[in-house]
Amino acid sequence: MSEFTHLDSSGHARMVDVTDKTPTARRATAEAFVACGTHVVSALRDGAVPKGDVAAVARIAGIAAVKRVPDLLPLAHVIGIHGAVVDIEILDAGVRIEATVRTADRTGVEMEALTAAAVAGLAVVDMVKSLDKRVELGGLRLLAKDGGKSGSWRRSEKG
Hints:
- This protein is α+β, with helices and mostly antiparallel strands and 159 residues long.
- The protein contains four helices and five strands.
- The protein has helices spanning 38-46, 54-66, 69-72, 110-128; strands at residues 24-35, 83-91, 94-105, 136-146, 153-154.
- A five-stranded antiparallel beta sheet has the order 2-3-1-4-5.
């Protein structure tokens, strides 16, 4: 790539102008993982976490975060979010979070999906940290995206 899209001719940061782009349906899915000890997983499965319903709080935190991406990332566009789903799965090693965000706009929702997964993961950490300070949030990654100029992309397990 010969030119950076987010720098002007003087090398200063700029927001890319998407005014002339045609809105299209777009979707992105991301995931994160909160590694937890077996006693935390047991408490999650039994609904015995002292702070309450961890999955419900994490889902709402992730959905709320989607709407805040332009406030957090200075070059992100304000776009219409038309759908956001945050799924929480309790596994033997911890909590898997998968977030899917949809829009019909001029730019993609990859950062929104990643932010939803990250913030939902932070909410899980916040909810269980009193049970175990060693919980870890990691594995944040984009799984797939559809729409826009670059079309569809899927993460392969090979790389």
